[in-house]
Amino acid sequence: xxxxxxxxxxxxxxxxxxxxxxxxxxxxxxxxxxxxxxxxxxxxxxxxxxxxxxxxxxxxxxxxxxxxxxxxxxxxxxxxxxxxxxxxxxxxxxxxxxxxxxxxxxxxxxxxxxxxxxxxxxxxxxxxxxxxxxxxxxxxxxxxxxxxxxxxxxxxxxxxxxxxxxxxxxxxxxxxxxxxxxxxxxxxxxxxxxxxxxxxxxxxxxxxxxxxxxxxx
Length: 217
Fold this sequence. Notes:
Low-confidence stretches: none
Distance between the termini: 32 Å
Mean pLDDT: 87
CATH architecture of the largest domain: 3-Layer(aba) Sandwich
Strand order of the largest sheet: 1-3-2-4-5
CATH topology of the largest domain: Glutaredoxin
Structural class: alpha+beta
Radius of gyration: 19 Å
Order of helices and strands: HHHEEHEHHHHHHEEH
Strand content: 5-15%
CATH class of the largest domain: Alpha Beta
């Protein structure tokens, strides 16, 4: 059992390590207990992802590929600073061939996040999701005035009247509610969260971490 701390540091906590810790009566510090709790939550989240994977892939808006073979789903909030910080890594991973889908999870603490999510979904309906996504992640103008029509124009949405009807309508709100419910079913603790069918990554991610996550299908 003397090797347990080394295994924890090297590999993280898996089910066998947890069992060894418990059976050995290993004294657990507060940080270790917290890490054990997080590990259990991650195992539960991965199980939930496996149950919901088809729904996650079908609801997520594709950032790369056609959306039918998404490898990683990013669950995020356009106003979340950590999500915005990860945007360049996501773009780089997509450029390398990783198929990423984006699932909206606007947080109540962000005043404009719901509006941004709705704008992105309505832009998707107009075939301009990736352009709107880039605008929302790359600019802060909309956080000051929520001028979604301006953002739609800059994203190249061809029919602004249809876009305005969309953002005022009920169908896009129902779509956003489905996305939010799917994320809630995974036991979300914050944004961004990245998931593949077999693994989970909480918080900001690097390109290498995203590519590695995508390999765990």
